Amino acid sequence: MHSLAGQVFLLQLAVVMLLVAAALVALVVQAQRDVMADARHRTLAVAQTFANSPGIVAALNSADPTAELQPHVEAARKATGVDAVIVYGLNGITLANSDPRQIGKRVIGPYAAAANGKPFTSTFKGSLGLSVVSAVPVKNPAGSVIAIVSVPVTVERVQHRVNSQLPVLLGGAASALVLAAGGSALVGRRLRRQTHGLGPTEMARMYEHHDAVLHAVREGVLIVGGDGRLLLANDEARRLLDLPADAERRHITDLGLDEGLAELLASDRAATDEVCLAADRLLAVSKRLTAPHGPAGSVVTLRDTTELRVLTGRAEVAGERLQSLYDAGLRIGTSLDVKHTAEELAEVAVIRFADIVTVDLLEPVLRGEEISGAPDGIGELRSTAVAGLDAGHPLHPVRELIRLLPAQPVSTAMTEGRPVLVADLSASDVRPPEQPDSARRILDDGIHSLLVVPLRARGVVLGVVIFWRATGSPSFEDEDISFAEELAARAAVCIDNACRYTREHDMAVTLQRSLLPRALPRQSALEVAYRYLPAEAGVGGDWFDVIPLSGTRVALVVGDVVGHGLHAAATMGRLRTAVHNFASLDMPVEELLGRLDELVAQIDAEEVTAVEHGQGVVTGATCQYAVYDPTSGQLVIATAGHPGPAVVQPDGTVDFPQLPVSPPLGLGAGLPVETTELTVPDDSRLVLYTDGLIEDRTRDLDVGLEALRDALRGPARTPEATCAAVMEAMLSDRPRDDIALLVARTRRLGPDQVAEWEVPRDPAAVAPVRTACARRLAEWGLERVGFTAELILSELITNAIRYGAEPIAVRLLRTEPMGSPDAGTLILEVADGSSTSPHLRRAKLTDEGGRGLFLVARFSERWGTRYTATGKVIWAEQSLRNDATPEADDLGELLLDQWDDTAL
């Protein structure tokens, strides 16, 4: 109610109520007047009608006028609705009356006029109460008054008629009031919307402020309607645009404004400090659209910036330089490559600052070496990057060695570590930093100014960046030096980071390659090929290994250490060494990974302690370990947080066996490792890899596995060809993680390469078994090693019978190496059900035995013990080269010469 709309609503409602009340009173008064007038007219009409009715004179002249007139009187009253019809004589005696009780009584009333022959109507209070009475004389044919007819109507009856009309009048008044109130409410609502709920005082104050702002503000203000017509312009806008007096309500294009300014004002686009010309003024125009918060249109502000033209130009230059520095921060240092970083610096600077940019660096910086020489002792730079030049330019080409000349800008900048500005090369006594014979060519090509800025990082000068300007560009000024120094400082930090990364990367690569296998070991079970690719971002901890085991078995290992750099490479070397040591003990697959898990947990504990002292990082690793037995084609494999292998069948189909995956190394918490046993057909390919091969930021794991399946699927290929195909299909342009790939094609030992015998636990069984072995060696054409083989078997079988437990078995294996001139290996194995392990010891001079294992160790290349689920196997290997078997004649001398005999 404090708003203007509320006050107007109340005023309208009060006025309507007064009008309705006045109209209602007027209608009631008028109704009463009309009813009274109707009563007069009706009573007079009834009286005249009755007085002039036929037969009334005869009835009056009859012997009994009352009897003649009384029925007619009552009928007339009922028919006309009056209160009574009275006939009385001139003497005032009632002759007939609607009320029979009044007959014969004298009538009191103003009837003199009627008696004189004139009708009249009057209001008086009689026996019926306050009434309206009309009296009419009854005349005989002679014209004499012989009687009077009086007809009264009570005022009460008249008022009853008026009261019966009051509900209608009141209902009409109420309806009018409701309609008027609703109309007032609608008008008030619209007014509230138009005035935004403001009161009169607020609206007056707003108008005053609006008028004061429009006339006092130093900026021009325009309000333009949605149809492009000018709705309002303040005094400053009229002055700036030189608008005519009748500018308002005219279209913007009809005001004689500059074409660009008129187009902006008439368009439906917003603008912020857009510079436009208006006659000889330079205006900064800001435009905001009023929709959707108001009617379609726009509000425009104008500022005169004519006096700021020079400052605007300088601000644009400063803005361009700030943009250049911003671009430099985004574009310089996107890779950790020294040469690429130098090229990025040249490309950024040549866009807005110089026509030509050259970057020359020291040789140690390009090689990633630590700079130890003093700046004054540097005499050579290597041209690393050039931007902004066409073919045939006179400057040094990229990769050319530049010899510094004394007292030249580059030498001065390098020695003193400060920028050197040569504003005009043609007028300067200092020659450009090029060979003397090329100085004239530089000037001839239009190059007239240069600025040399040293690249410094950590207090060491890495090289220089030279900015050149040619014809069409102004010479360098002192104001340009700060920008060039800032640009060079940012680039120097990036170049120094790239140099240090190159140095660390080279060290990590060298360390890792020294820790990875340099060549695959000789073995006859698998044909193996591999690929290793370090990540572009840095060397990681991926590794692989092929470890020959006893009994022609081969272990395949792949692993991945979390992280990159020297720490990851060193940790990888520790784990690879540990795997070699555990494998040399012929540990089962699950036990080996369990021991490796304990080792990694110990390493992690050491690293946590180092982190608490501000050193090192916590290590994590995954590993997959598989052992292939060519005698049975069985593959025993276990994985600790590592992707499972792929098996390519001889027909080219690819399978990814579902393996139970144990937690990554260091997280097993002493839990047992689950293994899987697979029977692999001959000529299958086993593919082991690290996650860098299948995972990439552009694809998920499932897509990577499917791509690997497609790369492996197809006809039989050699492991080398398989590696090449997989790397070509899977390798991304910039691998973010190391990739290790190991492909092994399986070979099975044929029945003619294996011989087995069951041996009863009886010393007499040694000779028959030895004889059978000798026959099999003869069948294999190995008679030349028969004596030593029989000797080794005799010792091993005798020890098994004497100290072991049943069952006892003997197996001979003959291997033929692949792709090697080596004649192969003869493997002798004796298995028994005991878990006791033989060992060498020094035999005393008085000992009768204890020298058997010495003979085994002396006449075999390798020997050892491995444990199985049912006992142990003692094995020995003999090389089949001609020069690897000792002569039997030397056996006696050999035994006699040994004073430190060994016993079991």
Tell me what the structure shows.
With 904 residues, the protein is of the alpha+beta class. It is built from 22 helices and 32 strands. The protein has five domains: 4-162, Beta-Lactamase (2-Layer Sandwich); 217-305, Beta-Lactamase; 317-430 and 437-506, GAF domain (Beta-Lactamase); 524-746, Phosphatase 2c, domain 1 (4-Layer Sandwich); 754-898, 2-Layer Sandwich (Heat Shock Protein 90). Strands 13-12-11-16-15-14 form a six-stranded antiparallel sheet, sandwiched between helices. Strands 18, 19, 20, 21, 24 and 25 form a six-stranded mixed sheet that branches. A five-stranded antiparallel sheet has the order 2-1-5-4-3. A hairpin with a 2-residue loop joins strand 15 (449-457) and strand 16. Helix 10 (338-352) packs antiparallel against helix 14 (479-515), helix 17 (701-712) runs antiparallel to helix 18 (719-730) and helix 19 (766-779) runs antiparallel to helix 20. Mean pLDDT is 79; it is low at 898-904.
Query: What is the rounded distance between the termini?
Result: 117 Å
CATH architecture of the largest domain: 4-Layer Sandwich
CATH class of the largest domain: Alpha Beta
Secondary-structure content class: alpha+beta
Strand order of the largest sheet: 13-12-11-16-15-14
Mean residue pLDDT:
79
Count of domain modules: 5
Sequence stretches where pLDDT stays below 50 over 5 or more residues:
898-904
CATH superfamily of the largest domain: PPM-type phosphatase domain
How many strand elements? 32
Keywords: ATP-binding, Cell membrane, Hydrolase, Kinase, Magnesium, Manganese, Membrane, Metal-binding, Nucleotide-binding, Phosphoprotein, Protein phosphatase, Transferase, Transmembrane, Transmembrane helix
Transmembrane segments: 166-187
InterPro entries: Bact_Sigma-Reg, GAF, GAF-like_dom_sf, HATPase_C_sf, HATPase_dom, PAS, PPM-type-like_dom_sf, PPM-type_phosphatase-like_dom
Subcellular location: Cell membrane
